[in-house]
Design brief:
Strand content: 25-35%
Largest sheet: 6 strands, antiparallel
Radius of gyration: 20 Å
Shape: globular
Structural class: alpha+beta
Number of helices: 6
């Protein structure tokens, strides 16, 4: 099963340095509390960096000859086309590290020296994020609550990587989901937070499945009599 790809090949480490390297980096990332893993091909080396608390830290460099097999390995576990090297690809997988389960979103982008790979780590089943956990000031929180309870209009959440956009949006949806009277649809690529409730009214759609685009997904969502639509980036 694709989800068990990392574990199932562990016994073959001696023959597959790329498998060993990818496993080691993912394990390091989880234990370091990293949000993203970057595999960056340079002219003469393969650089590996982790984003921890919003800052990228270089953790190792490897011989550049390893890059092709690392890229193939990542594509295999992400369910991507290993023969395609000229266009961006997206994939995802699930891994277990130290009894914790992580969904990993993978993006592959061709660059001058080869394919740049970024893996976003999202812990499955981690505590549902609440608006009170965002640490707004009292005045900010009041304004924010007033805004999200308006019957129409839109709220734009922006900011750099790691600034908390997805977390803020997820907390808004959780807040809106409390009263169970709204029809809520999220359009994301991929789905980052799964909103659970014993009587959940959040319908989540992953863009990219069945070659759906944001434009088509939004058009379809608007026909579904929604009260709230969340559009990811």
């Amino acid at each position: 099963e694709q989800n068990d790809a990392l574990e199932s090949l562990d016994n073959d480490l001696d023959e597959k340095p790329a498998v060993q390297l990818v496993n080691q980096v993912i394990t390091n990332a989880v234990r370091s509390g990293a949000s993203d893993i970057h595999f960056e091909p340079m002219e003469k080396s393969l650089r590996v960096r982790l984003r921890i608390d919003g800052v990228l830290h270089e953790i190792m460099t490897q011989p550049v000859k390893l890059h092709a097999s690392v890229a193939s390995r990542v594509k295999v576990i992400g369910g991507m086309d290993i023969a395609e090297r000229r266009i961006p690809q997206d994939g995802r997988t699930t891994v277990k590290v130290d009894e914790r389960t992580f969904d990993i979103r993978i993006a592959v982008l061709p660059s001058v020296y080869g394919e740049k790979i970024v893996m976003r780590l999202l812990e499955r089943g981690s505590k549902s994020v609440q608006l009170k956990d965002i640490n707004f000031s009292k005045d900010q929180e009041e304004k924010f609550l007033n805004t999200i309870h308006m019957p129409y209009g839109f709220l734009l959440v922006t900011g750099p990587t790691g600034s908390g956009k997805s977390t803020t949006l997820a907390s808004i949806i959780n807040k809106a989901n409390e009263n169970l009277t709204d029809h809520i649809i999220t359009l994301e690529d991929p789905i980052e937070y799964v909103h659970k409730h014993k009587k959940s009214v959040v319908n989540q759609r992953e863009i990219g499945m069945d070659t759906l685009t944001y434009a088509n997904a939004l058009r379809a969502a608007l026909r579904e009599d929604p009260d709230i639509i969340l559009v990811g980036e």
